[in-house]
UniProtKB/TrEMBL annotation:
Domain Prephenate/arogenate dehydrogenase, first and last residues per copy: 9-297
PROSITE patterns assigned: PDH_ADH (PS51176)
Pfam families on file: PDH_C, PDH_N
Keywords linked to the UniProt accession: Oxidoreductase
Protein name: Prephenate dehydrogenase/arogenate dehydrogenase family protein
Length: 299
């Protein structure tokens, strides 16, 4: 299978964190890459990446890495891409392929259309649906994408060969690659990823700001831990995601507020039957989702 996949003599990863670092490790494990250049904002994380064998060279100068690479993976928080795409347009080799791992796609495609001119066909937007609340190169894992979805949202202008290469690289990580429009992508992930993160951050922030908050944290247990795991995620990354997907996320927040208002009214009326019915529907839907994930092994 490997023989049919385009090899990557030089892979440059801008943002060598959990996601970019895991992509580099997976490409190394698949034997598809000869050299990985890690690009970062500061040396401490890059030195960790070098030390752990995630990358082979490091630099804080994106232009030099962009000019040298055959595949460019942009894995910074999504807000950074408006600064990075002008460098891509200026320095990327005509034959090199660019992709990204951002959690939002509409704004990334917008930045690409604004800044990538001659290099727009080289770009294939992507998003691995895998992750964790951990950040940085030390969190990178070679099997992070194994049996996970990766969504690509190719542009009409993306070259067929670039789409094929990016799909094949992700497939080589063990992922199941799906294609959709950026609009549908952003709508889906507003509901199943971005809203849950906002809710989790909001609850922990609310309790942290109580004068007697430590009393509540003292007694919080596994239910609280499960609901709030994702409130340990990176604040800058999630700020960028919320701002980038503002309209779809706001719609989900309004719908959720309406749902909370409905349950609030039922509780005020002590309407146990209706409350139980909502909980039963939710339990059934979640169990069916878990079962389907277990069957497909795309956990
Ligand atoms: N964490 C997840 O669960 C997850 C899952 C899928 C996609 N993503 C997306 O992947 C991207 C990276 O997320 P992550 O979890 O790896 O974050 P991370 O914090 O682990 O890594 C991001 C790295 O990018 C660096 N960086 C930021 N701006 C930079 C710049 N201008 N130039 C060079 N380096 C820069 C940071 O210093 C950091 O080392 C984000 O766009 C995020 O939305 C995250
Ligand atoms: O597992 C986690 O901690 C995640 O937040 C992963 C998660 C998600 O919401 O499922 C977060 C952001 C991504 O863009 C994709 C996956």
């Amino acid at each position: 299978m490997e023989n049919n996949i385009q090899r990557i003599p030089v892979l440059a990863v801008v943002g060598v964190g959990l996601i970019g670092g895991s992509f580099a490790l997976a490409m190394k494990k698949a034997g598809l890459v000869d050299k990985v250049i890690g690009v970062g904002r500061g040396l401490a994380n890059l030195e960790d990446a070098l030390h752990h064998g995630v990358v082979d060279e490091i630099t804080t100068d994106p232009a030099s890495a962009i000019a040298t690479c055959d595949c460019l993976m942009l894995a910074t928080p999504v807000g950074q891409l408006s600064h990075l795409f002008p460098l891509v347009e200026k320095h990327l080799k005509p034959t090199a392929i660019v992709t990204d791992a951002g959690s939002t796609k509409g704004n990334v495609v917008g930045f690409a259309r604004e800044h990538l001119k001659d290099r727009l066909p080289n770009f294939v937007p992507g998003h691995p649906i895998a992750g964790a609340e951990f950040s940085g190169a030390k969190a990178a894992k070679e099997d992070l994408y194994h049996r996970k979805h990766v969504v690509i949202t190719p542009l009409a202008e993306s070259s067929i060969s670039a789409v094929a290469a990016v799909s094949a690289w992700w497939a080589a990580t063990g992922a199941d690659v799906r294609s959709m429009t950026p609009e549908l992508h952003d709508q889906i992930f507003a509901a199943v990823s971005h809203l849950p993160h906002v809710l989790s951050f909001a609850l922990v922030d609310m309790l942290a700001n109580r004068t007697n908050g430590s009393l509540f944290f003292d007694f919080a247990a596994s239910g609280f831990r499960d609901f709030t795991r994702i409130a340990s995620s990176h604040p800058e990354m999630w700020r960028d995601i919320c701002l980038a997907n503002k309209s779809a996320l706001l719609q989900e927040m309004y719908d959720y507020q309406a749902q909370l208002s409905k349950i609030t009214a039922l509780l005020e009326a002590a309407n146990g039957a209706e409350i139980e019915s909502i909980f039963a529907t939710a339990r059934e839907a979640r169990n069916a989702w878990l079962h389907q994930k277990q069957q497909s092994l795309l956990k």
